Amino acid sequence: MKLWLRILSLFVAAIGSVGCAGGNFKEAGAGAPKITSESFVFDGQSRPYSVYTPRGYDDKKKKYPTILFLHGLFEGGSNGTAMVNVGIGPAIRKNPERFNCIVVFPQAPGSWKNVDEQPIAMATLDEAMKHYAIDSGRVTLTGLSTGGVAVWQLGAKYPNRFAALAPLCAYSDYDDVPKLTKYPIWAVHNGTDPFVPAGNTHEMTKRINDAGGNARKTIFSAFGHDCWDAAYADETFVAWLQAPGKTQTAVVPQVVQRQ
Prior knowledge:
Elements (H helix, E strand, L loop, with lengths): L1 H16 L16 E9 L2 E9 L10 E7 L17 H7 L7 E5 L11 H14 L2 E11 L1 H12 L6 E5 L15 E9 L6 H12 L3 E10 L4 H5 L2 H8 L1 H4 L12
Parallel strand pairs: 3-4, 3-5, 5-6, 6-7, 7-8
Antiparallel strand pairs: 1-2, 2-4
């Protein structure tokens, strides 16, 4: 009974987090970090997205490493705000100095687990590239839960679009394992996840490495589905998202137990 109460409280907390602001940047004015709301027309409908630009952003002087972030189930819709309030968005607002990159936040109408909605993510990235100084050779794809399994699927489908993959608390995608061996991968999960068991991440990284790939994993010693707050608060992980080729070369896959 106690376990079910904990699961129920986690579910309520997840719903309650939708739409909650992650705080504003302390800095303001020209050159300050910011998250900008945007929209574009895709398949005849207006689709919202947001873009984070770092302190000192100057699109005329250089191209920036970029993170494409795929939200979880409860952040889908068309409000243009929910996807920046859970996951990497609050981590950026709390420590913007760690994110010296562009972050693109697409929003699925429903769920990224629906393969029919996944083209929206790619179209959003393409649209953002028209207006922001995105380095097309340094785009890391990350996402949580239903967005996490879409990381596997989109990484397999678009092998020339991403430099690295970072799925969090993701469902497995065994059929695509042979197509994922080219990437540096860092997968994260909680050891006791009642919604998407950590075995998904254990087995995915094992199969990728057995096939000759380069996948590492972090398993937190925690109960619950939310491994993203701890992951995106980790300076080493955030640095890797922005420069996976420099911070991971022939890395031995590992499990790191953290509270």
